[in-house]
Amino acid sequence: LWTKWFGWSYAKTREQLVHRRIIETNNKYSPTRFAKSYRIAQDFWQEPLVLKEIPRHSIKHLDCNAIDSNVTTTTSPYRNEYLCAESHLKRFKLPDWKADEFNKICDEGDQDPKKWGDLKRFSIIAMNENQWWSKVDKNHRHHTPLTTIPSQIRKHIVHGVWETVEGWDFKNFQPSLLQFYRETGITTQIPQPEYNQYFELCKCGKLYEFIAEKMGKRSRDDVKKPMLTMLNIDNERMVEMPIYRCLAQWFPVISSIIYAIKQEDHRKMATFLQRKEAAIVFGQIVKRFANHKAPFFTVHDSVITTKNNCDLLEKIFEEVIEEQRMNTKKDKA
To answer: For a tag on the chain, would you pick the N or C end, based on fewer CB atoms within 10 A?
Structure first.
């Protein structure tokens, strides 16, 4: 959990916790296959675990102007865009009277350790008590309490006192970023029919539906998570996944490019995808939208603003999508 909370600079925190014997290495997992795993030190196993609930009436620390931020020290090329996003954070709120509903959603997350129910509660409480953080990681992703809150809760966010918010994102975003695969040093040429079919499906937001149909799945939801997992895990496990076999059948060259990008180190794919995501979202969308002085926040590949600014945001998204499509065509030529 500490790794998840402090993902932008967790190493020093982890070292301190190990040194103070609060956590310890969990030797259950093999360090040759997985990253090191940690657990609460055995001395604390019998102590009661106290979980904090989201209060119905939060105490707003309105006089606390400091945001726990590393933005001013980041070497990312999008520093000004992060600062702009950071300047709007404290105007976004969640209604206190829906605390019971939010707690219920987080409780459901507790049933699945991968959903980090406690982290969601922690983020909501921090946000409603005006205790914000704003962190940029090594792949130029921007993390705030808003990026951790689940979508079921995020839709209740308001700006100021009552302004509702809406957002835009890219359809099939991570799979579509493979159109920039040459930036990883891969020179393989994708046959035009395969290229057109795959990226047209991405553009229309229908790639997951296509894969689901070919695999005999019920809906896009059955393949979205496996698809993203496939892109990011090591090749040894990836080639055993049914979704990879399906992709290799219908898009053989693109699947071989995915394999090649990760051949030396599977983490190279995450670096490539996340940095490209930041280049488009912050380097283009946010950069243009910020000129209009409208409030907004980001959740990785999406940008959210107030309803009265949604048309403007949509226009900018459409401009960038079209420019990316044209630039890719030029690169292929």
So the answer is: C
**Rounded (10°) angle between helices 221-232 and 207-215:** 100
- What is the predicted pLDDT for the residue at 263? 96
Distance CA 81, CA 77 (A): 9
Phi, psi (deg, nearest 5) at residue 5? -65, -40
pLDDT at 133 over 80: yes
Residue type, 146: L
Say if residue 20's pLDDT is above 90.
no
Instruction: Check if the beta carbon of residue 294 is closer than 8 Å to that of residue 270.
Output: no
pLDDT band for position 1 (cuts 50, 70, 90):
very low
Residue 143 · residue 137 · CB < 8 Å: yes
Read off the tokens for 156.
Answer: 């209740």
Contact by Cβ (8 Å): 312, 176:
no
DSSP-derived 3-state class of residue 138: coil
Residue 204 neighbours by CB distance under 10 Å = 12
DSSP SS3 for 199: helix
Report which DSSP code applies to 42: G
Position 332 scores a pLDDT of 57
Residue 76 main-chain phi, psi, to 5 deg = -65, 145
pLDDT tens digits, one per residue of 201-219:
998 999 999 999 999 999 9
State the DSSP H helix or E strand holding residue 273, giving kind and residue range, or none if neither.
helix 267-280
Which among 183, 89, 188 is positioned nearest to 130, based on CA atoms? 89
Measure the CA–CA gap between 283 and 301, rounded to whole angstroms. Answer: 12
Contacts of 188 (CB under 8 A, 6+ apart): 181, 253, 256, 257, 260
Q: Are the beta carbons of 306 and 294 closer than 8 angstroms?
A: yes
3-state secondary structure of 157: coil
